[in-house]
Each structure stands twice: as C-alpha cells, then as structure tokens.
Amino acid sequence: MSDDVSSPEDGGPREDFLTRIIDQLLDLLQTARDWVRQEAEATVKEKIVPPLQRLGLALASGFAAASLLLIGLLFIAVAALVYLSQVLGTPLAFFIVGAVFIVGAAIFTAVKVRSMQR
C-alpha cells in the first residue's frame, strides 16, 4: 500500500484532508454569509432608508404646517370675534364666526369627496 493512505484507526492524512475540506467549506459558508449580510445592509441603506427619511420629513413638515395654520385660524377667529362683537354684538359675532367655520368645513369636505371619487 501507499504511505499516504493509512488505516482509519491511525487518524492519518485522510482525516487531515477531510478536516481541511470541512474547514474550507466552513470558510466558504462564512464568506457567503458575510457577503449576503453586506449586500442586504447596502440594499436597506440604499432602497429603504432614503424613502423613509423623505416620508418622515414630509410628515413633520405637514404636521408643522397644519399646526401653524390652526394657530393662525384661531387668532383670526378671535380677532373677528372681538371686532364683530364691538360692531354687531356678541351673540351675532359668535354666530357669524361659527357659520364661516361650518361653511369652510363643508367646502373642504366636498372637495375631499370629489377628489376621492376620481
């Protein structure tokens, strides 16, 4: 027989060969796993994070705009109420300001319903 091949009991070159193959396969699997992880991370950073950032900025700016609009409308309503109460009286001033808000809400609702139907 050959000197390179020994019996299974000896634990010779054949087991070293299998050990090296298993180690190389494990290294290959580790490299593949690292590559897949790196590609997934790059894809997430490239395809998912920027749209979420834009969405967050859009929501934040929309919330800020709506808050400022609400505060502005509140000040305008108070100013109109004070002015109209001096000119027409308090009950009529409340009625007029309330009616303006109700008509505005109806207009916005009608526009929203029309845009949803299209």
Please supply descriptive tags for the structure shown above.
rod-shaped; mainly alpha; 118 residues
Mean pLDDT: 87
Share of residues in strands: under 5%
Number of domains: 1
Helicity level: over 70%
Describe this structure in words.
The chain is mainly α and 118 residues long. The chain has one domain (13-117). The protein is 87% helix and 0% strand. The chain is built from two helices and no strands. The protein has helices spanning 13-87, 90-117. Helix 1 (13-87) packs antiparallel against helix 2. The longest helix is centred in the middle third of the chain and has 75 residues, at 13-87. The model has no long low-confidence stretch (mean pLDDT 87).
Topology at a glance:
Elements: H1 13-87, H2 90-117
Gist of the model:
The protein has 118 residues and is mainly alpha-helical. It has helices at residues 13-87, 90-117. The longest helix is centred in the middle third of the chain and has 75 residues, at 13-87.
